[in-house]
Write a structure and sequence with these properties.
Oligomer: single chain
Order of helices and strands: HHHHHHHHHEEHHHHHHHHHH
Strand order of the largest sheet: 1-2
Distance between the termini: 76 Å
Helix content: 55-70%
Low-confidence stretches: none
Strand content: under 5%
Length: 462
């Protein structure tokens, strides 16, 4: 119910030219009330509203249809070619799923619809740089509030955030600690912003934000996310050629790594053992993996098994090499024809054939095939290269760091293909383009003013 109110509010404030409010309300939809509102209050299952981000898609398409004359020239911009290419690729896969594979339209639409968020760059372009940046700062504050709630979950022994997409909260219980997986969905962009944009915060507030964001990563026990974050920050500093800051951050980072190892020693040792086992994996002719043991296999090994089994399946069919198995849901009749041995079991004891939260590449290789996955990856890398070329600009640097992180963690999660990545990439791309345009405009204005003053000086009598 609340999602409908937020949706109507977003439209109302856009039409009444209060665009910064409408943009914030738009982000409340895919994040299910910023993960703070109870999920049951956001949805209306009786009328088919089970995912709040569906209303975000409706808002996006409504505004694009309303403002189509303003956005025709936007889609041709160089910055957005990679995003458009991925969207076109996903649309082709959707058509193949319906026309060639004969899947039900509703079945194929469910995985496909999140790719519509890649078009949100056209929506963000309708807002001023000031409005988008103001909204982004508010999102960072909301992420801070979410982080504090996340930190309180263990002491209170109960989840305080929803997962953003569903009502269930995934957690792992040990004797003395509960590992919650409902991290704030915009945690990493918010952390990178606080680290890269030092002058946009009061120092004390900035340090509190950074400390809370790092605390969430530590409490999540997500070792790969932590190491990837620290590695990318070091790289960012080295790329910026700021020796003093690099030395300072390396010292602090080394101390943080030492504390991290003390806190996550068992998890790190387990990961190192996993990597040694991964090199010995083999695939048999029945698409199962030799020596796979669901009871003794650890996380990294499980992910490698999971991906390789699906890669083998796709490799044995020419159509699957080109287009994968298309957009298919776990509960579709066609999914029952799959017989993968590697995957998490559901409540009924059946192995999940398609869905996984462990590795993005398993889903990509099934949905897009080998050729489609390569194209997808090339688009992401092309986008990364474009932002590397503009690394001196703040938002270009932020976007490059974010892309690097989702690529690195794609072997240990699905952030690369998540709804939030499909939102953040267009948002950061637009912020980067507008920041550069603003800088060029100011530079030209300064040059024109300087020329005018110099010209008037020459005309004055001596």
């Amino acid at each position: 119910m609340i999602a409908i109110i937020l949706f109507l509010g977003a439209i109302f404030f856009y039409l009444t030219d209060k665009k910064n409010i409408s943009l914030l309300l738009f982000f409340s939809l895919p994040t299910s009330g910023f993960q703070i509102v109870p999920f049951s209050l956001m949805v209306l299952p009786d009328v088919g509203l089970n995912k709040t981000y569906d209303l975000g898609i409706v808002f996006l398409l409504f505004i694009l249809a309303l403002e189509y004359k303003k956005i025709i020239h936007i889609v041709r911009a160089r910055y957005y070619k990679a995003l458009l290419s991925i969207f076109i690729l996903s649309s082709i896969i959707f058509l193949v799923s319906v026309v060639v594979y004969k899947y039900n339209v509703a079945t194929a639409l469910r995985p496909y619809r999140s790719y519509l968020f890649l078009l949100s760059f056209a929506l963000f372009e309708l807002y001023s740089f000031k409005d988008i940046e103001k909204c982004f700062k508010l999102l960072i504050f909301i992420t801070f509030v979410q982080s504090m709630l996340y930190i309180l979950q263990n002491p209170l022994g109960m989840p305080l955030l929803n997962s953003g997409l569903a009502d269930d909260i995934v957690e792992h219980q040990t004797a003395s600690f509960t590992r919650y997986y409902n991290l704030p969905v915009l945690l990493i962009p918010s952390l990178f912003y606080c680290l890269l944009f030092q002058k946009k915060f009061i120092p004390f507030i900035r340090y509190i934000y950074i400390a809370s964001f790092f605390a969430v990563i530590l409490l999540s026990l997500h070792r790969n996310l932590l190491f990837a974050t620290i590695l990318i920050l070091f790289f960012s500093l080295l790329k910026s050629s700021n020796i003093k800051k690099t030395i300072t951050y390396i010292s602090v980072g080394s101390l943080l790594l030492l504390l991290t190892y003390t806190f996550l020693e068992d998890r790190i040792d387990e990961g190192l053992k996993d990597l040694q086992i991964v090199n010995k994996l083999q695939i048999d002719n029945n698409y199962g993996l030799l020596n796979y043991d669901a009871h003794s296999t650890n996380t990294s090994t499980f992910r490698a098994f999971h991906f390789l089994e699906r890669l083998q399946y796709v490799s044995d069919n020419s159509m699957h090499i080109l287009f994968g198995i298309g957009f298919l849901t776990e509960d579709a009749p066609q999914a029952k024809a799959l017989h993968f041995n590697v995957g998490l079991k559901d409540e009924s004891g059946q192995i999940a054939q398609i869905n996984t939260g462990d590795i993005a590449w398993s889903i990509l290789i099934l949905n897009f095939g080998i050729v489609g996955t390569i194209i997808y990856l090339l688009c992401i890398i092309w986008l990364l290269v474009q932002f590397f070329k503009l690394f001196t600009f703040g938002y270009a640097k932020l976007c490059a760091c974010y892309i690097l992180l989702v690529l690195i963690t794609s072997f240990y999660g699905t952030d690369l293909i998540s709804v939030y990545c499909k939102l953040m990439l267009p948002l950061l791309a637009v912020l980067s383009r507008k920041e550069i345009a603003y800088y060029i405009s100011r530079k030209k204005s300064y040059e024109n003013t300087t020329t005018h003053i110099h010209h008037n000086t020459l005309l004055q009598p001596s």
